[in-house]
Amino acid sequence: xxxxxxxxxxxxxxxxxxxxxGTFSRAAARETxxxxxxxxxxxxxxxxxxxxxxxxxxxxxVEHLFSGALDGTTDALDSMSTYVPTDSVESYRRTxxxxxxxxxxxIVKERGFVYVLAVVPGSPGESIGLVRGDALAQxxxxxxxxxxxxxxxxxxxxxxxxxxxxxxIRRSQSREETLTLAEFEPRPPAIERTEELPVLRVxxxxxxxxxxxxxxxxxxxxxxxxxxVLDLRGVAGGDSRVAYAVAELFVEGKLGGLRRRAETLETxxxxxxPIWHGAVVVLVDRSxxxxxxxxxAVLQQGAGADLVGERTFGHAGRQSFFELSTGGExxxxxxxxxGPDDEPIERGLEPEVVVSEANRNLSEAGVPLRELILLxxxxxxxxxxxxxxxxx
Length: 392
Description:
Largest sheet: 6 strands, mixed
Number of strands: 17
Number of helices: 11
CATH architecture of the largest domain: Alpha-Beta Complex
Distance between the termini: 68 Å
Helix content: 25-40%
Shape: globular
Oligomer: single chain
Order of helices and strands: HHHHEHEEHEEHEEEEHEHEEEHEEEEH
Strand order of the largest sheet: 8-9-10-13-14-17
CATH class of the largest domain: Alpha Beta
Strand content: 25-35%
Radius of gyration: 23 Å
């Protein structure tokens, strides 16, 4: 893209974002002066577009420019929403059905940069060493900065056996990797003993997870365990209903709901006695997103669990397709899930014990951050178990 095109694309995106912000609140705008602002923005956008078509150094494609502007509009709303052009609607719907099952990689595009949000253990993404925070600069020789998120996700949901050439940047160092897409079996929930304390590791919250977690909790309870660390680090996406179902193993009564603005669309409640009654500490990080945030919020608010780690990603929303008159579609966040406090999870959850590079002790200088989060979680669990024993 030439410098002129880059400038025009930026202006287009800015203007359409202004238009969109007025469009989505149009009903309210009719009662305020915002309506005048909306039509003023439309007028300016039309004037700029006509000026470019008449005088720009090269012939421009209006369809391409509008598509780019709409990409910018959805990116301004949140990192999970996207505009899908007409000829790609069906393929993107298939992409959503496949999800990360062929790559194991959840990606996010923010301010033009594409990075890895989470990598499923045992997946093709893990096999080539990808980790959370890796930037994907190129895929098959194409710069990801110029690709909409729907196209990137579609590439990662390609047929098993497809090879994708990636340029990966980590800590300013670039390397090339070949990602071979393949179906894989995610690792099931499992309990590991660390410093003699049980750590329940969950890699995904998908159908089947609830029954597996329930078996593990029953086994722990039978052993007389009175404390548990639940590891939700790296769990992105997932099934919101599974999150509430797993939460029901810990919490009875109100669990949360699905809210759109001031309207409650659905409610979730634990309708059977909880299986687990001991202390709970939940490990989270920046890649805990979606269903993991729902589960963490319910346990924090309904079971008195302490969160340990980094602030979570901050997006547990329901997303839906909205068809446009052109045949294209908008894939938008139209509602957010909540915990028992009814607050939509559209911002990151703040842990009781924040673990970051900035708050290390001198004695922890050489400990990797991931290991440090686990150590702080185990320490917090010991404190919680002690408090329960004193209360008894």
